[in-house]
Amino acid sequence: MKPKFTFIDLFAGIGGFRIALERLGGKCVFSSEWDKHAKETYYQNYGEVPFGDITNFTKTDTDVSIKTDNIPDHDILCGGFPCQPFSQAGRQLGFEDARGTLFFDILTIAKIHRPKVLFLENVKRLRGHDKGKTFAVICNALKEIGYKVYSKVVSAYDQGVPQNRERIFIVAFSQPIHFEFPKNNRHSIYSKVGDILEKRVDSQFTISDKLWAGHQRRLREHRERGNGFGYSLFDEESQYVNTISARYWKDGSEILIDQKNNNPRILTPRECARIQGYPEDFKYHDSKRHSYQQFGNSVAVPVIEAISRNIFSALDSPKQSSNTLLPLEPVCL
Questions:
Q1: What is the spatial distance between Cα 298 and Cα 280, in angstroms, rounded to a whole number?
Q2: Where along the chain is the active site annotated (predicted)?
Q3: Which of 83, 139, 272, 332 is catalytic?
Q4: What is the pTM (predicted TM-score) of this model?
Q5: Which of 33, 76, 98, 270 can bridge 50 by disulfide, Cβ–Cβ 3.0-4.6 Å?
Q6: What is the rounded CA–CA span in Å between residue 123 and residue 77?
């Protein structure tokens, strides 16, 4: 069966973008990920090993198009690219200022292949990174190569999973298309934290007396200093948990689950998969450390799916919009 659209999965991690886009009828024609452990998980679930460093396809001493031709044509370029400073950013805050960063590799591929849509994700603080210069470079560089750019901070909680995970999403069209981000759809998948918790959990996930005492001591010390740092405790009735991070494997302090008459416990890998919206048959890494890191670095699948649906709605019924230059400030219109 012919796919409805094709896409490439850059900085692929464990394939959060891929799951969402394949659900909507897309076919992945190229994937790239440099972390060997993430590549192992990717292979377990999709039957292919992503290509490594994307710069191998965009940096060459000869014509860059020679290598980017090894990337198939595609309708959508997607990826959660790293947040890097554009240290040489000048007054123009555009394409040339992005050189030396992995975002420049996205620009290079987009400039040659001209996909209909660029669908990008990053941490919320990207907007204010380097006093707003980073975001201004991104917006204006995309504009320079002919894309209409939209951006918004979206929380995973607002798209049905019990996690307060706010990320900025950038959607850019090769045509002047009108686009709107999805409306809130809370509790559409899970209504509370208890819905993602496993019924029987091995004792290995219960934190030790020593670690629990350390968490409590650090919380007291932080409160005495007047700041809000410390562990966070949730239970079955909580509406959502904090953002799971790549460091969760270290001590689990950002998300501890209350256990009556016992020390709290950390989430299991399956529970981490659920708060990121992964399907029940998703195969996570055999190493707990790597599985926690990978889920902490991942996108929330329901957010990707919701935004994607709106992208296709916009493509199906485009409204022409003006092609004026973006302002040189950290805002994408």
A1: 16
A2: 83
A3: 83
A4: 0.89
A5: 33
A6: 18
Which numeric CATH code is attached to 5-188+298-316?
3.40.50.150
Asked if the model's pLDDT at residue 230 lies above 50, the reply is yes
DSSP structure class, residue 120: E
Tokens (6 digits) for 267: 């989430």
**Cβ pair 155, 164 in contact under 8 A:** yes
Q: Would residue 139 show up in a list of annotated catalytic residues for this protein?
A: no
- Report residue 113: phi and psi, to 5°: -90, -20
- H helices of 145-207, in order, are none
Classify residue 84 as exposed, middle or buried by CB count within 10 Å of its CB (0-12, 13-18, 19+): middle
Burial 201-223 (b: 16+ CB within 10 A, else e): beeebbbeeebbeebeeebeeee
Whether 304 contacts 16, CB under 8 Å: yes
Per residue in 16-27, pLDDT tens?
999 999 999 999
Which of 276, 80, 102 lies closest to 170 in space, CA to CA?
80
Q: What is residue 184's DSSP assignment?
A: P
Give domain limits for the chain: 5-188+298-316, 193-276
* CATH class of the structural domain 193-276: alpha beta
First to last CA, the chain: 37
* Average pLDDT along the chain: 88
Q: How far is CA 237 from the centre of its chain?
A: 27
- Angstrom distance (rounded) from CA 66 to CA 78: 21
User: What phi and psi values does residue 154 have, to the nearest 5 degrees?
Assistant: -125, 135
- If we measure between CA atoms, which residue out of 153, 58, 173 comes closest to residue 107? 58
For residues 102 and 144, the model is more confident at 144
Query: Which residues are 76's β-sheet partners?
Result: 7, 117
Strand partners of residue 149: 172
- Amino acid identity of residue 71, one-letter, is I
